[in-house]
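Objective 1b of the project was to move from sequence-level analysis to a structural picture of ligand recognition. The entry below was assembled by the postdoctoral researcher (A.K.) and checked by the PI before modelling. It contains the amino acid sequence of the target and the SMILES of the bound compound, magnesium ion.
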Amino acid sequence: MSTATRTRRRPEAAPKAETADDAPVDLLTAADHAALHELMLLTRAVEERGVRLYKQGKIPGSFYDGRGQEAIAVGATYALAADDVVCSPLIRDLGAHLVRGTDLVEVFRHYLGRENRLSRGREGNIHFGDRRLGVVGPVSMLPDMMVVAVGVAMAFRIRGEQRCALSFFGDGATSRGDWHEAMNWASVRRDPVVFVCENNQLAYSTPTSRQFRVRPAERAAAYAMPAEIVDGNDVTAVFDAVRRARERALDGGGPTLVEAESMRMHGHGAHDDASYVTPELLAAWADRDPLAAHAPIAVAHGVDPEALLRMVTERVDAAVAEALSSPMPDPAGATDDVFCVGEPQGLGAGDAPWSGFATAAIADRRQAA
Ligand SMILES: Cc1ncc(C[n+]2csc(CCOP(=O)(O)OP(=O)(O)O)c2C)c(N)n1
Ligand SMILES: [Mg+2]
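Corresponding predicted holo structure:
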C-alpha cells in the first residue's frame, strides 16, 4: 500500500474489488444501475438533439457524437472519485462530462455558440471542459492530453495525494509518438494514471487493420504495464476495469491501459456519411448496443428504462429551450482570455456518483459475499 496521504476531500475508502478467493463481486447497487442507465440515456439524448440542431443550421462547424460508445465514457468516469481528474474527454466522451456534473444548459449553450461558462461561445462542439469539476478540456492534437494526464498524475505522486488521472484516446491516437512517450514515462515513474483507449474500429475512414499490426493492449507489455481488453459496450465491465486500474494506481502500482472495444456507429462527424463502413458491420454492432445491453440488467434492479427516458427527454427539451433563448457572446470580448492573466485557478472536484464512494454498504456486501 502507498503511504501517501490525502490532502483534500476524501471519499470513503474505495472498496477492494475481489473477495479473498478473487471472485469478482457486483459492487454496483440498484441506484448505481439506475444512474448508469440514466447517464447513458442522457448522453444519447443530448447527442441526438445536437445532431438535429446541427442539421437545422443552429450549431456551427460540424457535430461529433459517440453513438454506440456511451458505455465507455460513462462506465470509466463513474469509477472515479470526486477529486480524481479527467484529462480529457474527447469527441466520443460526452458521458464523462455528464458523470462529473457538467450543467446541461451550459453544454447546449456551448454547442450553439451562446455565451456560456465552458467556452464563452468560442467553440462549437468538442473542445471543452469544466475545470471546476476536475475535467480538463482537450486540445486538438491527438493524443497530447495523455501527456498532460501523466503530468497531472506526476503531481499527485510527488505531492503524496491519493488521487489518479484518467485519459481517454482513440485507436488512431495510438499510432502517434506522444502515445509511446506517455506510456513509457508513466510506467517508469509509476504515475497514478489510467489510460482508456476507445477502440472503435476506425480513425476517421481508416480501419484498425490499416493502423497497426499489434493492438494497443498488447503493446502495453513493452512498457511492463498491465493492460486489459474489455467489452466497451458493457458499462459494468468498463466500470470494473477502470475501478481496478484506479485502485492499482492508488496502491502505488502505476498506470494501466484499458482497451475498450466498441464501434463508431456514426460518421466521424455529422458531415461524414461513413459510406466506407459496410451496413453488415454496423448491423452486427447494432445488436450489441450498449443501452439495449444494459436495459435488462437495469430492469432486474427495479429500474424502469422507459420512465427514465421520458425524464431524460424532458430535461433535454428544457435545456435546449433555455440555451436557445440565451444571448450570443458580446463580440467586444472576442480577445478576452487569450492569455492567462494572474494566477490560474486550480482544478476543482466533480461529482462521484458511485455508491462505493458514498456509503459503506459496498464493504458490507463484500464481507457478506
Ligand atoms: C496529431 C493529430 N493528427 C490528426 C488529427 C485530425 N483528427 C482528428 S480526430 C481524428 C481521428 C482520430 O481517430 P481515433 O483516435 O481512433 O478517435 P475516434 O475519432 O475514432 O474516436 C483525426 C485524424 C488530430 N486531431 N491530431
Ligand atoms: Mg477510433
